Description:
By secondary structure, the protein is α/β, with parallel strands linked by helices. The protein has 8 helices and 29 strands. The protein has helices spanning 2-5, 16-25, 164-172, 211-221, 236-246, 267-275, 310-328, 383-387, and strands at residues 13-14, 32-36, 49-50, 60-61, 65-68, 78-86, 100-104, 116-119, 123-126, 129-132, 142-143, 154-156, 177-181, 185-191, 195-196, 207-208, 225-232, 252-256, 280-284, 286-287, 291-297, 301-306, 338-343, 347-348, 355-364, 370-374, 391-395, 400-401, 406-411. It has a 7-stranded mixed beta sheet with strand order 1-19-21-22-18-14-17, sandwiched between helices. Strands 8-5-7-6-10-9 form a 6-stranded mixed beta sheet, with no helix packed on it.
Amino acid sequence: xxxxxxxxxxxxxxxxxxARARVMGICPVLPAEQVRTVDSIGRVLASAALANxxxxxxxxxxxxxxxxxxxxxxxxxxRLEVVGALLAGSGERVAVGPGQAVRIMTGAPVPEGADAVCxxxxxxxxxxxxxxxxxxSNGQNIRPVGDDVKAGEVVCxxxxxxxxxxxxxxxxxxxxxxxxxxRPEVGVVSTGDELVEPGEELGYGRIYDSNRPMxxxxxxxxxxxxxxxxxxxxxxxxxxxxxxxxxxxxxxxVLSGGVxxxxxxxxxxxxxxxxxxTAEVMQIAIRPAKPFSCAVLDGRVPAFGxxxxxxxxxxxxxxxxxxxxxxxxxxxxxxxxxxxxxxxxALRRKPDGKTHFVRVRLEALQxxxxxxxxxxxxxxxxxxxxxxxxxxxxxxxxxxLDQGATVEVLVTREPALWG
Length: 419
Ligand code: AMP
Ligand code: MG
């Protein structure tokens, strides 16, 4: 415990790459389990899902029109006798003989004897007869059995995440259950004696606890189940108690505050103690979000200690926690996309051995490129500027970039929301 209390001044700074490798290294991929397909949304498949039934399960009409024998329509116009009507799902069985046709709607099974469907727009109905006005070829407007997928074929590969469209594909192929990785349940705790719950009176020297709601939302946005574990004071016993309880109930814990070099930065102390050999107390060569601690609780549950400054907490989550949670959920790719953008203003900085992450607003340009506009207020406490950012421009150590220079931007917000 004493070593945990030691100042961090003597701790060497490590690269972001090294820090990420250490964080990823302590995070397991959660076990796979059988789940009902209808409950699998947001999960990653642990093995390929195979079709139980062919899609479509029977040959059916792609059009509203007339099912007929293509060979009957030698020259047009051509008159055929209408011997019945078929609606999708009617369950009726009708046969089409030579010189006959059956009125058919999209999705209805192609009747016995028929080998083509002429769309209604190419016909003229006259009582029990129909005149076909255009030539018809064998198989026209018929969707054969298994045209989409055959029984036993792969519907979704292992590693695919079940989103709305994957769900539709699985259900249409009669897949009732899938093998999918557990969706991580992630507890969020904020620490600090100064924190007040939203809606309560702000006393002297107090601030609203904004990190906890932010991190809970970020956990949800990463596809995990957020679990609100509340807020604790700067008290070693309280922090230890909440972590010990969390290690029995969730799959990972995200904490904010208390990982820096202040007198009451006890999260790193507790993580070092509870995590034993797995604990990592780091100083990362980035700005913001230099301090970061993590450890595995009870041999199973990774806990991530983020700095309390809201911008640092958000950047830590983006750069270190989000990829770790995606790994735990079974995702193979854990990276946010980046874009190359033109710096709308100079992005100046001083050399300090660190990579800087500058909050920028992104704009799509006429020529298909992007421009990056640094937001006003880049201090790590300035959460309002964070709210206006679409991404983080990555500035390597040095003096920064001139206006118009190309800069790589980590995209943290969907392009539809840019502006
Ligand atoms: P710490 O990392 O605990 O030293 O906190 C750094 C700064 O972040 C201090 O100004 C804290 O008041 C602030 N802070 C810590 N936790 C939160 C939180 N949950 N919400 C908003 N600000 C916080
Ligand atoms: Mg604090």
